[in-house]
Amino acid sequence: MKWDELFNIVKDLEIGHSYKIYEENGFLIKIIRPIRDFKGYDIKKNFQIFIKEGEREFRPNHLRVFIDLNLRIRCRPDLKEELLIAFDNIFYKNDPIIEIEKLSKEKFEHCLNPITSTAILSQLFIMEQEYNYHKESMFEPPTLFYQGWIRQFLDSTKEIDNLCMSVCRFQPPAVKYTRLDNKRHKAFIYKKPPLWYLE
């Protein structure tokens, strides 16, 4: 879905209502504007992401995307650059279905979700942070915290449990994955080549 289209859906969603974002082979992603007022969130802006898979319905978090991508890169290291470019372009507000189209034809022995669903979840998490997050951040845009971890989970040789522990402790991603995109960092530049953070 295009960024502006998704933004309008999120903005116009009424309290207590839901909207189906995507469905593929029994795997459904939807958003809900909850009735309950959560502390620190604007009830008129807050929305929650849900997955329904068969009879199971649950709220995913960022780790689901990070782990899914790390599993994919472990079984298909030859696709690292393609995955990084696709998910960077989603971060830069391109349509995830278009960005992931070629990769959706590839075979991955290990993953958590269909890859198109992972791409759509990533767009939703970025939207969730951009639309809802109003706290002070060391990143500008604040969504760069999330995207830095996407890059690190796809590029790092660290073990997945160590990476997950760092995220759960709210540690920022390594500076190399964010500095040129971060307007709060002295190295920030507007024009940069793709995959500038790879050594």
Automatic annotation (TrEMBL):
Taxonomy, superkingdom: Bacteria
Protein name, entry field: Uncharacterized protein
